[in-house]
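Hey,
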Amino acid sequence: MPQRPRNVLDRLRTPRRFPKFLKAAAICIVVGGLLSPISATAASGIVTAADATAANDYCGGQCSDILPPGENGNATLAQILLNQAFGTQPGHAEDQLGPYADLATGYSGLTDTKINTFFDDASFGVPSGQVASTERPAGRSDVTIVRDRKTGVPHITGTTRYGTEFGAGYAAGEDRLWLMDVFRHVGRGQLTSFAGGAASNQGLEQEFWRNAPYTEADLQAQIDRAVAAAGDRGKQALDDVNAYLAGVNAYIDASDGGRYFPGEYVLTGHKDAITNAGTIEHFKVTDLVALASVIGALFGSGGGGEVNNAVSLLAAQSKYGVAEGTKVWESFRERNDPEAVLTVHDGESFPYATKPDSPQGEALPDAGSVTQEPLVYDRTGSAATSSATRASKAAAATALTSARRGMSNALVVSGKYTASGHPVAVFGPQTGYFAPQLLMLQEIQGPGISARGASFAGLSMYVELGRGQDYSWSATTSGQDIIDTYAVELCQDDYHYLYHGTCTAMDRIEQKNAWSPTVADGTAAGSYTMRVWRTKYGPVEYRATVGGKKVAYTTLRSSYLHEADSIIGFQMLNDPGYVKGPQDFQSAVQHINYTFNWFYADSRHIAYYNSGDNPVRASGVDAEFPTWAQADYEWRGWDPATNTADYTPPSQHPNSVDQDYYISWNNKQAEDYTAAPWGEGSVHRGNLLQDRVKKLVAAGGVTRSSLTKAMADAALADLRAEDVLPKLLKVVNSSTVTDPTAAAAVSKLSAWVSAGARRTETSAGSHTYADADAIRILDAWWPLLVKAEFEPGLGSDLYTAFTGNLPVDESPSAAHGPTGSHAGSSFQYGWWSYVDKDIRAVLGEPVQGPLARTYCGGGSLSACRDTLISTLTQAAGMTASQVYPGDDQCSTGDQWCADSIVQRTLGGIKHGRISWQNRPTFQQVVEYTSHR
């Protein structure tokens, strides 16, 4: 892959070469830092605490969790300079990174007694001998923050609800203030003005603001509606938020006055290191809505991509004719593939967004007429460079695709199949790797709140993924379709449209940003304006003609203008008086309008529920394609003023209690439940979990360690090698391989498959893969074989269109997803199912839900074999330098480094690379021993 420009998450890294005045000042600053307070805890003067071990913990010491790199995500300027110069880490900045990384080579010998070698004890409270510090934030008498020695996690205990939430806000400020500030500006489309004009900063703010172009009035209205709709719980949520913000802002004032605020404020020009001049802006309620819109867009907004679907359908119909082209398209779309791995696998059907028998209201574009709506105008200075325009193009592609990088996995087993008779769960969100991490750990104990776990920084008034007194919960991204594309017919000019027969002006929403060079970001001065044209059917994303009529394509998602609504569900999950069993859990997550799969385990039950506001579509509307913006085809009960509609009832969402086991890795939820992304066919990374957990359950006696080992083993597996390569080799070996290069490659690949098809080091820390040649060969071969297998039959236009719907590959070293390469998560999207089905068809093996045609060698086994051997020989001849070209992290040809995970810097502290694992970022291992 070509060397990337400074990555979206590298942008805030302090330059390795400091300006001369900083070099000279560094020692003075360090000394000053040692003589002045470096944390509010130290300043409080409270160093001891009574035994905080909780009596309301029913996990019996069998709850564990981990969240790399570390709890401490704030660093003073002195600490940043020390880290940049010498690699010195602030306390608790990376003490969870080593244990997390070590599981990759240590899981094979894992036992229950060794789990906390790789995880941390997630019991409530802190034993007195493990108390590192105790503080009463802002001198309050109604809340205490205790931090443990091992990880520095805040354990917040309040005697009043206000005090509890004030403490949660104060702890958030202590651990993630800079990150919170970054993401409130991302959500508002103001990142470049705040943190600098690096091309990656430009791309990031464009990606999110395109889909959530909110005004201040929009943000406030969302709060007002969410509170009003939820009654007493809504009022309590607002009170909680205000108390939380009071805590955050109290920390801002304390750290500003004590001069121990995050050093990034100095490096980005917001504060003066000498005079302390400058301001750290207080947080307000609307900031949290902006922040929530970023998190929801990243992980909880399934759907979209209807225009791309239409483009590929038209290409298929152009190639084969309407009837046959539609058949081919549908076979690649795999809406409801009978071979797809399912989370609810007991045969229950949950029809949603299924293909209508007689589609109505489709508004397919005229061929070649689609253009993307511009977002950026009036570029000046560095905003007009080629790197800036490339970042804009990439941001638009990410924002408009249906292939959202869901990530996250879950393995949950019923007590009927465990050694103890109690359910066991290993689960967590795969949120990428950042420094500081997007999530933060905490424990909150107060009136109506009792939980420990992870929350997104700035939204940590409640634990969002974690445990209660006698239950744990987690989530994976589900991706069902809650976004539709409407074709609005234009009238008068390009900025008016017909709404129910009336020519209506579009709303023009703008955000103007300008920046200058800083120490943290030396990008030259520049500016631009982001402009979105907004209709009642959502923002305009494309322009086209339909039957010769000019239209604008808009996107409307059910969570648009409702970013704050999910707070009620999280409030319920934290309330021990509300959640007492699986049905209560399901009721709580029904209040979360983002698209997630939710999992639950206590000492007796396991459960699952798929959340999201699934709109009820008009009869005959096909959610796959653009629809005319007319009353007959709108969501049923839709009110454009509030963007509310009729939603499918909870019973129609995939849900289950006490199935034998659940697995999820962003795979298909249940029979007939259509998800928006492509690629949910016969081979999916969910199969890596399904195969291992099914085997464990069949044997019985599942333990925490055996389920963790199953997860860890799947985390190192190459999906292509485990599930597709054996079939490819079967074709290749259907006759004797005479070419010596191909024969040697076949031998290496076969040996790798026999060894388990893992991408793993020869030994811990070797930075060299076992079976390195085989891995290199497959990495080189896969894109070559896919193109040679399918492009001749599909034709270049249709093949290109389909690759726009679903990328060919997503290996660990590929630059994919919102964080580029080095992101851990892999094998979510790719053509492995297509290759699997096509090769089985060539071999004459049974295929359920086959592709409409056989492509490899035109269906001839010998011709297919020739294609595979030809491309395999080509791949085998490629050097490591050709396969792994190097980037800003790795030298050319370094295979291990190309795969490695990087904690992408969102601030001034850097961390070392770790070996690749495909697993959750925050992860829990739980087995409750009793229940209230």
